[in-house]
């Protein structure tokens, strides 16, 4: 593979910083062996790489691929039946009583083979890729039995090996208490800590360990025990925190030095301050609150202004966020949460990389970073969130190879 020289882009948005320095005009980008080797004035690069193969960008905009740092992309069937009930105002508890909710996905997933789940998940990743996502985190959490949690993580591993998208696996055995442990939750937490975490770590199937901390799901005490056990086995902590009710999730995430605190729809003021003074990334998932019909979003502006590192992700899952679209997340971040388009783009790329501990320059177009690139059919990067509901992606490259 020779050198590729991307020329004629109206803008190259490097996402290294959330200010004008990241928005380059009249510049080109050179790629060799899947890595960005130069970004600079077009005439300089043309002279430096005279034999490079030209990739004409025709006045479009070039950005890094999105790093979607929070998804539940491995699942069985969709749950549109349940959605229709919710739209008519049937409360979630009633839907759960009728067999819906997360546990519907659990029953469904347990009945499916690993091969079947690979086949179901592959096209979803293709859809993510076509909307500009080149790296994604994927969680387990619909198995809630050791064998089924391992099965989900093996599906992630197989699809990661297939490529082209990079997948980062997270163990989320504490997504919900399964029906067979409803009367004995302590025994389920024991199972997660004593059997699942060691098995996942032993098989090298996850990088992170996550817990759904929320009143009625897992408590702070249970989350602490699970995340500390995970860490002792080499799995870095993440936390679903303060999604629908504030419960001190952000504060706990910071106390445990979690890599990220995700959701934060109802984070407290103390939680915002704790995140601002920490290295825990605030991962915001506005598509979920939008889809659930909530009117209040996470305080993205406050988090950003107080100095927290903000990431944006889809939360792609069959219950509360069935969309794999990062451009839609950008629109929500700008229109509903007060970020400006450049801040939102940085949060969805470099921010996502921070939330996944990827330190190879991923999510930026700096020299040395993998050449994960998206070419947008727009004249200005601000059109990416602005022209919502259409897919403006013209082409995607993963490590310098065109994949869309
Ligand atoms: Zn989630």
Query: Which class best fits the helix and strand makeup?
Result: alpha/beta
Q: Tell me the number of strands.
A: 18
Q: What is the C-alpha radius of gyration, as a whole number of Å?
A: 21 Å
Overall, the morphology is globular
Count every helix, treating DSSP H or I runs of 4 or more residues as helices. Answer: 16
Largest sheet: 8 strands, parallel
Q: Can you list the ligands bound to this structure? A: zinc ion
Kindly report how far apart the N and C termini lie. 18 Å
Calculate the mean pLDDT score and round it. Answer: 97
Strand neighbour order, sheet with most strands: 8-9-10-11-12-13-14-15
Q: Would you identify the regions where 5 or more consecutive residues have pLDDT less than 50? A: none
The portion of residues assigned to helices is: 25-40%
Estimate what percentage of residues fall within beta strands.
15-25%
Describe the structure.
Strands 8-9-10-11-12-13-14-15 form an eight-stranded parallel beta sheet. Helix 6 (146-162) links the parallel strand 9 (133-139) and strand 10. The longest helix is centred in the middle third of the chain and has 18 residues, at 185-202. Helix 9 runs parallel beside helix 10. The protein contains 16 helices and 18 strands. The protein is of the alpha/beta class and 404 residues long. The chain is 37% helix and 21% strand. It binds zinc ion (ZN).
């Amino acid at each position: 593979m020779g050198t590729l020289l991307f020329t004629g882009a109206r803008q190259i948005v490097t996402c290294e910083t959330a200010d004008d320095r990241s928005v380059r005009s009249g510049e080109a980008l050179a790629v060799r062996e899947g890595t960005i080797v130069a970004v600079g004035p077009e005439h300089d690069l043309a002279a430096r790489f005279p034999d490079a193969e030209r990739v004409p960008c025709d006045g479009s905009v070039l950005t890094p691929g999105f790093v979607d740092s929070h998804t539940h992309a491995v699942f069985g069937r969709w749950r549109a039946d349940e959605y229709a009930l919710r739209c008519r105002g049937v409360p979630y508890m009633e839907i759960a009583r009728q067999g819906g909710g997360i546990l519907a996905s659990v029953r469904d997933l347990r009945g499916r083979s690993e091969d079947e789940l690979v086949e179901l998940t592959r096209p979803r990743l293709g859809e993510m890729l076509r909307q500009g996502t080149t790296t994604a985190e994927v969680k387990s959490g619909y198995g809630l039995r050791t064998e089924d949690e391992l099965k989900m993580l093996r599906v992630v591993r197989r699809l990661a090996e297939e490529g082209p998208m990079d997948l980062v696996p997270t163990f989320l055995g504490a997504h919900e208490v399964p029906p067979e442990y409803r009367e004995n939750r302590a025994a389920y937490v024991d199972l997660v800590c004593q059997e699942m975490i060691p098995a996942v770590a032993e098989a090298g199937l996850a990088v992170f360990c996550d817990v759904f901390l929320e009143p009625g799901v897992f408590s702070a005490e249970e989350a602490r025990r699970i995340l500390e056990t995970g860490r002792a086995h080499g799995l870095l902590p993440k936390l679903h925190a303060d999604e629908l009710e504030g419960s001190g999730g952000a504060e706990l995430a910071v106390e445990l030095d979690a890599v990220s605190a995700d959701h934060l729809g109802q984070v407290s003021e103390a939680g915002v301050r704790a995140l601002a003074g920490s290295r825990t990334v605030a991962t915001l998932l506005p598509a979920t609150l939008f889809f659930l019909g909530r009117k209040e979003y996470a305080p993205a502006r406050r988090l950003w202004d107080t100095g927290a590192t903000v990431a944006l992700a889809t939360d792609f899952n069959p219950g509360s966020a069935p969309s794999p679209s990062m451009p839609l997340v950008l629109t929500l971040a700008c229109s509903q949460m007060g970020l400006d388009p450049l801040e939102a783009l940085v949060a969805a790329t470099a921010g996502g990389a921070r939330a996944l501990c990827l330190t190879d320059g991923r999510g930026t177009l700096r020299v040395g970073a993998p050449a994960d690139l998206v070419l947008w059919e727009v004249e200005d990067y601000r059109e990416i969130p602005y022209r919502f509901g259409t897919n403006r992606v013209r082409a995607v490259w993963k490590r310098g190879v065109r994949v869309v």
